[in-house]
Known about the structure:
By secondary structure, this protein is an all-alpha fold. The protein has 2 domains: 1-174, Orthogonal Bundle (Tetracycline Repressor, domain 2); 175-306. It has 17 helices and no strands. The chain has helices spanning 4-11, 20-26, 29-45, 52-76, 78-81, 99-120, 123-144, 151-155, 157-160, 162-171, 176-199, 201-207, 212-215, 218-236, 238-241, 247-269, 276-305. Mean pLDDT is 93; it is low at 1-16.
Amino acid sequence: MNSPNLAIVQRTRRVGGARLADYLALLKPRVMSLVVFTALVGLALAPGGLHPLVAVAALVCIAVGAGASGAINMWYDADIDGQMLRTCDRPIPRGHVRPGAALAFGTVLSFASVLAMGALVNLLSAALLAMTIAFYVFIYTMWLKRRTPQNIVIGGAAGAFPPMIGWAAASGEVSLASISLFAIIFFWTPPHFWALALYRADDYRNVGVPMLPVVAGKAATRRQILIYSLILFPITLSPVALGVCGLAYGLGAALLGLIFIAFAYRVWRTGDDDDAPARRLFGYSIFYLFALFAVMLGERLAGAWA
């Protein structure tokens, strides 16, 4: 499929080899930073403990694994990335990195991260990391993304595993408490990504990706955003019920969640021609997830200090 966007990209191809910055961009550093932070919180909340050097090694392995799956995702989606305004500046469509080099880069880093996690931390965390990479690459990227509007609902599990991996790295187990951390990110992902899809619907329609606004319409998407936001609220309080977090987190989560619902309500009440509420919800949703896990971490550190 051709488009003006693709023509612009093709005119900007670099002559010569890729720079380090291009390979770093393949790792999706902004996504990686949130992955690493949620993994850190899972590690900090888990019972037991790790030597600081082992904890750092675990977080590096998680970061590399997340970045590797992002690189493979960019390799597979290169044909549509060049035709979408949001992704046309990525290294492969701009010609800065060859597709085969991106695939090799992601594959090597994937295996290296899992092997290092198994050797330096424990086998359970390595198995969870391998499952996360495989889920993102094979289940979400290659299977779900171009076939079903539920791609984000199911595929969101890949982004929800990092705190479980951190928990397993520290404790050597998967517990109900770590599953509650997984559930928070799992149910946060649909309203977060559908808010983006609302104002990028034309991008997805042009490349044939069946995002919910394209298949079901914007009104149905706005309704689903509100429903998931309401479901998310009690789930964010589950760590308190399970005893892994305390009152400070509970109050913070409740306040942040009510604001999230207010943003989602505004999206639900808005017509198809006004993208501003969806943009605001998308921006807040990123802050919201970071703030939730920051309050968890802050409460745990304050308790340890006291």
